[in-house]
Amino acid sequence: MIPTDETWFEGTDECWLAGPAVASVLGRRIELPDDDAVRTVARDLALLRRRHGIVEPAAGPTLRLVRDPSRTDLTAEGFEVTADGDDLVLTAGGGPGLGYGFWRLLTCGPEALTGPQVPAYRVRMLNHWDNLVAQELGQVERGYAGGSIFFADGRVRADLTRVRDYARLVACLGINAVAVNNVNVHEAETRLLTDHLDGVARVAGVLAEYGLSTYLAVSFASPVTLGDLDTADPLDPRVVAWWSETTRRVAARVPTFGGYVVKADSEGRPGPFTYGRSHSDGANLLADALAPYGGTVFWRAFVYDHRQDWRDRGTDRARAAYDHFLPLDGTFRDNVVLQVKHGPMDFQVREPVSPLLLGLRETSLACELQITQEYTGQQRHAVYLGPCWSQVLAFPTGLTDTVPPLRDVLRQPHRPRSGLTAVANVGTDRTWTGHPFAQANLYAYGRLAWDPALDPTDVLREWAAATYEPTVAEAVVEILAGSWLTYERYTAPLGVGWMVQPHHHYGPSVDGYEYSPWGTYHFADRDGVGVDRTVATGTGCTAQYPPEVARVYESLADCPDELLLFFHHVPYTHVLHSGATVIQHVYDTHVAGYDEVVAMVRRWEEVAPLVPEPTRSEVTVRFAEQVRSAAEWRDQVSTYFWRKSGVPDAHGRVIP
Amino acid sequence: MIPTDETWFEGTDECWLAGPAVASVLGRRIELPDDDAVRTVARDLALLRRRHGIVEPAAGPTLRLVRDPSRTDLTAEGFEVTADGDDLVLTAGGGPGLGYGFWRLLTCGPEALTGPQVPAYRVRMLNHWDNLVAQELGQVERGYAGGSIFFADGRVRADLTRVRDYARLVACLGINAVAVNNVNVHEAETRLLTDHLDGVARVAGVLAEYGLSTYLAVSFASPVTLGDLDTADPLDPRVVAWWSETTRRVAARVPTFGGYVVKADSEGRPGPFTYGRSHSDGANLLADALAPYGGTVFWRAFVYDHRQDWRDRGTDRARAAYDHFLPLDGTFRDNVVLQVKHGPMDFQVREPVSPLLLGLRETSLACELQITQEYTGQQRHAVYLGPCWSQVLAFPTGLTDTVPPLRDVLRQPHRPRSGLTAVANVGTDRTWTGHPFAQANLYAYGRLAWDPALDPTDVLREWAAATYEPTVAEAVVEILAGSWLTYERYTAPLGVGWMVQPHHHYGPSVDGYEYSPWGTYHFADRDGVGVDRTVATGTGCTAQYPPEVARVYESLADCPDELLLFFHHVPYTHVLHSGATVIQHVYDTHVAGYDEVVAMVRRWEEVAPLVPEPTRSEVTVRFAEQVRSAAEWRDQVSTYFWRKSGVPDAHGRVIP
Q1: Is the peptide bond before A614 cis (omega within 30 degrees of 0)?
Q2: Min Cα–Cα distance to chain B from A530, Å
């Protein structure tokens, strides 16, 4: 029996649960163990059969779900699908694995699932930057897909149907944790710990149906903000007691409470620095409060001087996280995870990997990615980020053979709470993600968090096949596979970043952050451009990398083209490994990037008639904006550097 | 008897009614005619005596107010103060003149009032950009002095005490009309014509006590917005009838209703272009509706393409008002006043005078000034604008002897509804204007609207003497006299304008509007800077001026330095009349401008102890911000042009 109030994606997109695998699973007889762990599976099977009108056959090929505790190789979360004649057997070591295996079968079918499927990381998390109350940047900060699925009218939603559908979608990917509110914790959201705890418990209950634990972003100043104390000093016994008691109440009310996410001493947020304490003092305070309940604190390393003087070339924001946190390695409790953005700046289309991720040796690490396209087209541009993340996880592959790749560093057994986290791109939009193609990014993130060695184009194909009919899927893969590099080509060149409109971050403004206090400069003058971060003559940022990598970045001759302006200030006439000068590279790539967008749109137009409405129009209207915006990027960046350098285009093109 | 609910500046600044003239008037016996026209004078005298505790003497020197209809030379608004032994006689031709004479006596005493005082213009208006409901830019658009004195909580205020005090302040200056709401008429404000008419009548009643008529800014689309019609086509008889009936209702409810102010087909506002009609069709529609009640429509000429392509160098926003409106000269009803911003762009610190103001021959004209310091420091910088306006009104004095100055053009008898209007700088702030020194701008505007030939430094002295004790007044005059030129020096050089942060317009961003759709470019490249508006090689804007003036602006050799980059694109090495190159001028003036601010602050610190709190702190805290901001301007502009030109400072100063 299905409760009448339970539904299956009513009025919203089914995403990767729309594909052929669903029907192939429903065509079987399905045997479930007599086990609480499959209650949600049983319920969803009933919903799915109703949705597709497929009655369970009385006989024939069977799918058997089996929990086998002897399969310790699978861990509690892993599973394996094997054939037994015409039957399929889904074996899991524990309850969570049964669920993940079942949802994956629905997504991509048994053929894609050969051998044991075990997640690489224990931490596979999504961070929502959702506010109870809309702020200047909207209800979902840096959200481009409508309002919050969790909150409305200043409280947790009464109807959590969309949260259930969302949990199901991300469970297909093996996600196991969700932080439901914005790391910039404003006043109303501080009270998630208190007044809104019943609502948090309801959300957590729905997420728990799909094995997801629930995290809260908290303000370090909560003891003060909530009016209970006059200090938030982490060494003050009253503060210790406050967090202990507050955490006890949350854990008592929310059985699947995972812990806290904290942005402290960052972009104006309060933190331990206020009290002359260190970040390990701050993080350990919360870790100790969480320890009795097995909880974890995710402590963000995004600490830098956001009131920098642009005249001061000695201060380098790219150094900040490493400079602040490396000396603290080894001082954190076991249940502290340092959450480090993948690059040293802030989710630019191209950055080197944060040196802190390789520098820390003792501390558990979460590498933070950004699924929401803050700096990559804001879900109006079709940009598939899988290749970007894959390259981050492979770092420093290609630069040296002697340093293990980040994806392996994140699974070192002595810091087992490591893994990936990412800022979600989801909202109340019908398609969940604004641009229908942005679903690919949510999908790819989840898949890479499960298996970081996957080929991102394979993941893209998997997503497309689960989402669109084959002809469309093929075109969508062609459109998206290289779209990250296309976006890079028509925006900020050679790793320099930041040429965006201030505040909202959409569209070009080459000098938009050049004279700002944010530490985000390109230093373009009439002779050259780029940031000298070398040890020899610059800020010394290169020395934060392992020596094998530092040598490459430090060397003007060896530094990869795509990061040249991140590490070096060079004349416009500098010749790249590609053979082009820097200035000609700027002209050429901007023209090429725009032309690639036009080609993407042509490819889309070929298959658009096969795509049902409203998806067809939703994509088409966004492509029109992407073309317009790409031309604007091309022309503003080209004109800016033409006016500055005075070097004409070698191909004789007229720059406006 | 004073009604108990009437007060004299309770909790707010008395501005120029704080000076010695008040006591000198109160020291006399005062004889008023038995005349309704002096009811407000009588009431205010009683309030003033209570405020100062000065009882009217039973005998001794007397001030006699006399209405003498035979003095037609004074018109209804003029007055004359004469001595009769120890007595003073204030003679006026009509009721309004009695009031103006009395308030002026309170402001500056009889010594300043020799000979007949008759206003140069019939139109002496203030435009408030106040909204009922706060918008993105606040409740008062481009307001820097708190909220609206007229509106709160989406309606006209219940308590209009501050409106009465404000009316008294501006009556001291001879202002005779106030438009109470923003020319950008949003949805709520459209209903000032309907739902809020009672509130408008109450405001108008208070303003009328001081001889001020009340205007409403209206949306051209009102017949549609208010839901009555499906068109606002000015030639549709239903639209004609709608405006006729609506205006009849307003005029019936508001005896001192002056008419409408309209921003049509401008920055996204609706207008006659929507219906393929001309601006005279649009303006005449409203003029005809107003004619039975003697009303006037102020039709703004601020019409240009705000969706311009920055790549298109052929389109010139500076040409737009002239191109749109000159062909319509002679097609407007007598009760249409074309309201033209003083410069062809938008209230930049330096612009030439709008050629439309001299070009139109048959149309009544209001030259629109901006008292609120949108582009001149937003009432955080001390900038006295009197010299700027005085120079506008004297234009083209100094360039040619054969063209009469604008101040005389505005009083040509065949278009009697001409004069000045200005965007007010007033809000609910204690001092009315945010910066206490910004009161000087409100004062100077009113005085120049009464007598445009006044020396602006004399006006400044008059204001300071009426506001501060003599030692402070002397210092404040020294501080403010040259402050407009100081502001020009540390901001955008040589008439080029627009180097401000987009949207809010505070602080420097040299390229902030360079690649925008707003038509606001400087075209700086590595070789030079400026906008070529010549006939010979540019947009031909110079040809919109009278030939004697056009010749000067067209000529690179003759064009005044301060407007060079407005009319010409020149190399950085171009030598100015001053003897400096353009680039060296940029460096030198930015250093000088900042140094002048520092000197202003030093002068202030000498007299600050003599200034009572909270005024002392209000000024001091703003000066700290002005110093910080001036350094930011100096450094950003200098660095921008240093990076672009590569020309070092001739004085060897290090540019950051």
Answers
A1: yes
A2: 13
Candidates A511, A527, A642: best to mutate against B (most CBs of B within 10 A) is A511
Question: With contact defined as beta carbons under 8 Å apart, do B619 and B608 qualify?
Answer: yes
3-state secondary structure of B75: coil
Q: Are B135 and B11 in contact (CB under 8 A)?
A: no
Cross-chain CB nearest to B646 (options A311, A508, A526): A526
d(CA B523, CA B619): 37
Closest partner CB to B644 (pick from A510, A526, A642): A526
Q: Which two tokens stand for residue A467?
A: 């989402």
Contact A509 B511 (CB under 8 A): yes
Q: Predicted ipTM?
A: 0.91
Overall size of chain A counted in residues? 656
Q: Is B625 part of the annotated catalytic residue set?
A: no
What DSSP line would sit under A216-279, residue for residue? EEE-TTHHHHTTS-S---TT-HHHHHHHHHHHHHHHHH-TTEEEEEE--SSTT---GGGGT--H
Tell me how far apart the alpha carbons of residues B615 and A171 are, in angstroms, rounded to a whole number: 63
Torsion of CA B335, B339, B342, B344, to 10 degrees: -120
- Please enumerate in sequence order all residues whose Cβ is within 8 A of that of A195, keeping only pairs 6 or more positions apart, or say none: none
- Alpha carbon distance A193, A249 (integer Å): 9
Contact (CB<8Å) A511/B509: yes
CA distances to A70, A200, A248, A449 from A245, rounded to whole Å, are 39, 17, 5, 33
Record: contact A515-B636, CB cut-off 8 A: yes
Check: CB of residue A641 under 8 Å from CB of residue A524.
Answer: yes
How many angstroms separate the CA atoms of A334 and B345, rounded?
Answer: 63
Phi/psi at B280 (nearest 5 deg)? -75, -35
Q: Which residue has the tokens 């802030």?
A: A346
**Burial class for A589, CB neighbours closer than 10 Å (0-12, 13-18, 19+):** buried
Residue B1 has what pLDDT? 53
Number of other CB atoms surrounding residue A237 within 10 Å = 8
Taking contacts as CB-CB distances below 8 angstroms, the residues of chain A near B645 are 526
B656 vs A contacts (CB less than 8 Å): 310-311
**Residue A57 contacts B where some CB pair is shorter than 8 Å:** no
Kindly report the backbone phi and psi dihedral angles of residue A65, in degrees, each rounded to the nearest multiple of 5, phi listed first. Answer: -95, 125
Please name the residues in contact with A92: beta carbons below 8 A apart, sequence gap of 6 or more: A65, A66, A67, A68, A71, A74, A78, A79, A80, A98, A100, A101
State yes or no: pLDDT of B202 exceeds 80: yes
Tell me the β-bridge partners of B341: B368
- The pTM assigned to this predicted structure is 0.94
Residues in a beta bridge with B179: B127, B215
What is the C-alpha end-to-end distance of chain B, expressed in Å? 67
Instruction: Name the one residue in this structure whose structure tokens are 């009448």.
Output: A4
Q: What is the pLDDT of residue A2?
A: 59
Tell me the per-residue pLDDT of A524-551, one tens digit each, with 9 for 90 and over. Answer: 999 999 999 999 999 999 999 999 999 9
Q: Where are the beta strands (DSSP E) in A441-540?
A: 528-529
Query: Which three-class secondary structure state does DSSP give residue A522?
Result: coil
Six token digits for residue B483: 């402050």
What are the two backbone dihedrals, phi and then psi, of residue B369, each rounded to the nearest 5 degrees? -105, 165
Q: pLDDT (tens digit, 9 = 90+) per residue, B582-624?
A: 999 999 999 999 999 999 999 999 999 999 999 999 999 999 9
Q: Kindly state the tokens that stand for A380.
A: 């109006």
